[in-house]
Amino acid sequence: MDLFKNHQRRRRERLQRLYERHKRIHELLREHGEDILKSDNFRKTREHIQHGTMTVHNHCMDVARYSLLINKKLGIGCNKHDLIRGALLHDYFLYDWHDKAYLSQRKRLHGFHHPKTALQNAEKEYELNDIQREIIRKHMWPLSVVPPTCREAWVVTAADKYCSLLETVGVHRGHGARAS
Predict the structure, then answer these.
(1) How many whole angstroms separate alpha carbon 146 and alpha carbon 151?
(2) Which site from 25, 33, 69, 144 is most exposed, i.e. has the minimal number of CB atoms within 10 Å?
(3) Other C-beta atoms within 10 Å of 85: how many?
(4) pTM passes above 0.70
(5) 15-54 pLDDT, tens per residue?
(6) CA distance 105 to 91
(7) Alpha carbons 79 and 136: distance in angstroms, whole number
(8) DSSP helix/strand/coil, 105
(9) CA angle at 131 for the pair 128 and 137, rounded to the nearest 5°
């Protein structure tokens, strides 16, 4: 009987720690990215699919969360403000890259050109610093050829690759695009 009670207690404690971590991450996202999260254009990213059934909005939110987790777990010491804002805006391209009619007008592949488009869109709406620009511009490394030079860009790049893999193989599933 004691074994069962110990198991239940440990499970409760683990769930409490997970809840507290989720709450802290949510507070950090709100603290450093509230203007982005409330913007009309960022909300419109819920209408486009990123990988599998995951929306661009949910993908960016996941990349921001995982970036924070990687930074903490590995003790990298990234600037959380820049890390969060760069992660939220890294795929701010604001179009449906699955739309064949739209893509036929483009000469380059989405994977190669969307960081530049995302950066241009983000600069129109937000004041970005050099680290945030680098995160957005180089998150597709090695496709971006020039590797990131700051740790925040490396962390977001790693989180983006991890989230993209999980979405593509169906481990992380979204709810699909939905009207706002």
Answers:
(1) 14
(2) 69
(3) 26
(4) yes
(5) 999 889 989 999 999 999 999 999 999 999 888 877 767 8
(6) 20
(7) 15
(8) coil
(9) 85
- Dist. CA 117–CA 110, nearest whole Å: 10
Q: pLDDT tens digits, residue range 43-82?
A: 998 888 777 678 889 999 999 999 999 999 999 999 999 9
Helix (H, G, I), strand (E, B) or coil at 150: coil
Percent of residues in the chain assigned helix, strand, coil, to nearest 5: 70, 5, 30
Residues 6+ apart with CB under 8 A from 47: 55, 96, 177, 178, 179, 180
User: What is the token pair recorded at 40?
Assistant: 């009309």
The string of DSSP letters for 35-86 reads: HHHHSHHHHHGGGSEEETTEEHHHHHHHHHHHHHHHHHHHT----HHHHHHH
Residue 142 vs residues 19, 20, 72, 146, 161: alpha-carbon distances, Å = 35, 35, 24, 7, 11
Which residue is it, tokens 């720690």? 17
